[in-house]
Amino acid sequence: MGRSLRILLLLGAALLVLAAGGCGGDDDGGGGEGATIIHGTTDQPVSYDPAGSYDLPSWNVIYNAIWGLLSLPPGGNQPEPALAESCNFDNPSTYTCKLREGLKFSDGTDLTAEDVKHSFDRNNRINDPKGAAPLLGSLYKETGKVTGDEVEVVDDLTVTFHLNRPDATWPFIMTTGAGGIVPSEYPADKIQPDAQAVGHGPYKIAEYRPGEQTVLERNDDFYGEAPKNERVIIQYFDKSSALKLAVENGEVDLGYRNLTPTEVEDLRGADGVEVVEGNGTEIRYMVFNTKLEPGNNEAVRKAMAYVIDRQAIVDNVYNGTVEPLYSMVPRGLAGHTDNFKTVYGETPDKAKAEQVLEQAGVQTPVKAEIWWTPSHYGDLSADEYAEIKRALDGSGLFDVQLKSTEWDEYSEASSKDQYPVFQLGWFPDYPDPDNYLTPFYRSDSFLNNHYKNEQVDKLLADQQASTDQTEREEFFKQIQEIAAEEVPIIPIWQGKQVAAVREGITGVADTFDPSFQFRYWLVAKE
Amino acid sequence: MLGGRFLAPIREARGVPLWVLWAGIVITLVFIVLALFAPMISPYDFDEYRTGTGERFGKQQHPSADHPFGTNVLGTDVLARVIFGARTALEVVILAVFFSLAVGLPLGLVSGYYGGRLDRLLVLIMDSLFAFPYLLLAIVVAFLLSDKIGRGVFTAAVAISVVYIPQYFRVVRNHVISVREESYVEAARALGAKPRTVIGRYVLQNVIQNVPVIATLNAADAILTLAALGFLGYGIQPTDAAEWGYDLQRAISDAGAGIWWTGLFPGMAIVTLVTGLTLLGEGLNDVLNPVLRRRPIQAVILPERQSRLPADQVGV
Amino acid sequence: MAGTPHTTSLRTYALTRLALALPMVWILLTMVFLLMRVAPGDPISAALGGRVPAEQLQERREAAGYDRPLIVQYFEYLGEIARLDFGETIVDRRPVTKVILQNGAATLELTLVALIVALGVGISVGLISGRYRDTPLDIAGRLFGILIYAAPVFFLGFLAQIVFSQWLGWFPSSGRASPVTSFDLDTPTNLFLIDALIALDFDAFIDVLKHIVLPATTLGLVIGGVFIRLVRVNVLQTLQGDYIEAARARGLSERTVVWHHAFKNALVPVITIIGLQIALLLGGAVLTEQTFNWPGIGSELIRYLNNRDYIAIQGIITFFALLVVAISLVIDLVNAWVDPRVRY
């Protein structure tokens, strides 16, 4: 007996030693004395080539290291010159930019008008399956094809964009990740490997280990104000619970995207952690296929709009980390109006809903099949749709059956007339109301829900052709009015941007604005 | 006759194996009762979120008299979800064991009995399936089926059974091969019995003795696989049924916030049921499998043990 | 048992065994391919669905070649594998071989340390259980084995995180190293413990060690549960073996009998089983990696699976499959070499 017990004892002792080695106290990233910011996130990028990405996490790094001609200033929602000194519409379909002098890429080469042309042309030519070439539709007639005349190099520092139709949103498009300027050495027909990403911006991409981390280092050749930190490490997490613990233990300086509401609520009370909130422009909405039962009846759509309980979703599912949304255009954007609130009220109105259905001669309860997906908009979708079912069934006017499938199947089937009512979400390419109206209400919408209103189509075309901001806002107002009246889509909520930051980290609130760009250069430690 | 042959060793069993067996039987029975009478035992339905008067339970409420296990992130009762989870688990596992038996057993019988090219081919395919990382196989099958027939109990059961078919096949085939050479089977064949009769009457009866042990042990494993599927988000849609793995995954974000009850109880349910089934399986194995039965000579040589255990409990 | 015939027959056996392994590899490859292509969805709709119109998705799918006849894609795939070219992932454009090397190393590191834990726990508890059969020690040992086997890895991991990371703050809850360490450390082998030793960076080594404790212990315990059972049964069987009785009859002390004969012999099959348990290890690793945010090949696989990255999934699974086949081949050969009766 003695011997085997001794082995066990030894083993236990070994474990104890290990454990003791472990309690060496909290490590705080060490080294940099506040110079290194560690950002933890569950969002993972696709590619740091502007021609190969169309997703928030990739663009976020591009916003910090591979700037475009224009950018959105913190807190502002109108584009401002960045690599360009100035940009102007010569006429509604011709746009000319003048570059700043003496700009250099992070590899030391000069940044010229030629590089600008190369960047846009290769984006459309490569037409990468995961890229954002479709955003450049007003510049290039056909994705994948470049004639060479679209972008004209006037001289070393001047470049003119010849649009194929008037497009007031073009300056906005140039502020997106798709507008990042890369050197002419980038292959014209292939995506650049991420290890060799080059650009001009406050930071240089120093290292990228997929699934682990991206490291940004201060770019000393940046033309503008220097960042308030020397280095940013973006650390990737598979699960938000791990991210939350890392914030709590001080393993990361800031946790941004995607902590669950429960985690956020708990972090609010945690020691040494502060929760920073800001305006966000991510939205969720519910689409009716206007050809399928029961959404083919406007009265049914209206009745649902009356009884849906946004506040219940906000409170019970999201713990207040989102806000009710009463138009497809979220609050914070120029031209937003609260039409669904004015028409259908803030709280569920069963009587009105009943009245609408009765007038239209609809038998109640109305059977409705509502679809949602568990694998794209987070775990809370399940709870959100349970809540929607509760509100609709609770009114006694509806009999809801919830159905769900994996995102791959879902995204296809929903646009192929297979789902009568379905969940979707959106985050903006750029913070202009156009980006929240044209994709959804134009008769060729990607939703393919058969909603068609010629007046809306015309208004959408008009606002794109106008370069007068007040005039555009008037058009936006009219479109939102009609949309609320005919209800092809019910807006549900608008997300806030939420970050949990360690004590001593400043500047995060400054970057939270409708543009959805995380500007690391504003963030400082102590 | 079959029952008698099967039950006899249990009646003869003594000592630890018997206790193991009993513990397994009791735990498993408790869960079976929970599953069968869930609507009667559970205070609420698994998706109920408010009281009869229309008042909400509230989200993530501490355990209380009304909700002994508290409420979860959906505002439903955790106890109810644990109880109904037993139902889901048993449904899935019974279906899964049935499917894998229905496929694995006949294939194993045929493959082992006839041998030859068919046998080699089947062994190759089954070995390949066996070499495939099992969780992945289940995930892929689960999402293949989820788009055709939805994310329900049936899908989960099929996904899990695919993992266990090769195991049944292997065990049955190897057993058949050894039984085939037994003198009484050879005698039957020599007397001109048809293959079907030989397989059915002699081989099957012999092989089937092993099945309860494997089935219980696999059932335990299947519950873990189901939980893993749910944990990774490839399991059953939460509005359709209560499933422990899914609830546990949702609870992980609660636990960091000090809300321990939403994760602990589903987790404990998994551990307890799997333990119960394993004890049952091991108990059966100890009792039915004579190889490990203690031989008296040992008891004589090791005096310390003899003093502790009465001679009649030493077995055999 | 003379030298020459021994080796020749071993060689013949090896060749036969290899010939049998090839069709198995082929079946595995075909299975991987079919499963991935029959499964709904593709990387493009996974990424851009809900943003661009259906026709554009279709166009992009055609451009990427996902609409070509399956048979064409199949032979292309087989050809690539034959050239050991696993392709480049779609989601983040990494060569799959690099994914396997980089993230595979993380998994290897985790698994090796876990294996040490598993062997430590499994062998000690198993030996004691088997030696003191039916005593309270045995019952406690068995129950412990069953309980840790019955606890899902993610539940155990989750408890460990709460207790040791959140409450006690002894160990970090996730990752392989703190962000600064993993940036500063040169990683020629991608096994961080070894890399830190090579760099003679003591702080980094401690940091990495701290990170590996919780995931490795969790995974190790779960595998240990299997070992406990195995060791125990083997000890029971060897203790009943004739030569043990013979040894006892020769009047050797009980301690010598148990230690020198029973335990040593009981361990041999355990070593074999470790190899065979590789699938279990990998399955457990997927879940452990998910729980502890360990950037291993398992968590990468889940990530690629969620993004429907065919190329990555095919590549990784193919690699797994080849690995499993290769290991079972090696085990069979070793067994044949040790015990000539196996060769027939």
In words, what does this structure look like?
The complex is a heterotrimer of chains A (526), B (316) and C (344). Chain A has helices spanning 2-22, 56-65, 113-126, 170-175, 240-248, 261-268, 298-307, 310-317, 339-344, 350-359, 380-394, 407-414, 434-441, 454-465, 469-486, 508-511, and strands spanning 36-41, 70-71, 80-81, 84-91, 94-99, 151-155, 158-162, 203-209, 213-218, 231-236, 254-256, 273-278, 283-288, 322-324, 366-372, 398-404, 421-426, 489-495, 497-502, 505-506, 524-525. Chain A is α+β, with helices and mostly antiparallel strands. In chain C, helix 5 runs antiparallel to helix 6 (136-150), helix 6 packs across helix 10 and helix 10 runs antiparallel to helix 13. Chain C starts with a helix and ends in a 6-residue tail after the last helix. The chains are: A alpha+beta (526), B mainly alpha (316), C mainly alpha (344). Chains in contact: A-B, A-C, B-C. At the B-C interface, helix 5, helix 6, helix 10, helix 11 and helix 12 of B face helix 1, helix 6, helix 7, helix 10 and helix 13 of C.
Protein chains sharing the most extensive interface: A-C, 76 and 77 residues
**What is the gyration radius of chain B calculated from CA atoms?**
23 Å
- Structural Rg of chain C: 24 Å
The overall average pLDDT of chain B, rounded, is 78
What characterizes the major β-sheet of chain B?
Answer: none
* Percent in helix of chain B: over 70%
Regarding quaternary structure, what we see is: heterotrimer
